[in-house]
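Q: What structure does this chain adopt?
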Amino acid sequence: MNWLESYLYNGFLPVKISSWGILALLFISAILFIRIFGSRISKARKLRLQLKFSKEFEDRITEFLFDEEKYESGTEDYQHLVKELRRQIRRRLRRRVFAKVILLYHRDFKGIPEERLEKLYRDIKMPKYAFADLRTGSWYEKAFLFTEMGQMGISEGLPTVLRYANHYNTVLREEAQFAAVR
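A:
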């Protein structure tokens, strides 16, 4: 038996209690340190991925908007773009980033580019994902989805949006009312 075992097991009772307490405190501190460190690493990674995906989607949408002949509806390039975007937005993080980027461009453009963005949004089946996320998301995600559906003119979701028009959360209620009016 080494000195630590003999000290902890054969020592005076208050010394035993305080020694075990110190060891427990050190153990809990180590676990908290690992959790906090891991959380910071995952948040930094998520932010880095969001910036990367945002740049990719911005480049694609800019090319889509300014090269009208290449991405005319029904062309092979347009179909390839739709297929590629559908594949990429299966993951929730990419879908959220894509929604933010397309809404940013949608706000900035009027007329034909705005219509093309709405058509692209519908062609890659984003409303389907919006309705699915609406059932499972937290209140701030739902508020963003209402903004998304309102700006993109998704009228199919009006019954769902109207259910939230009298919600107890004021932000969610206002966004649902705004989406219903649009």
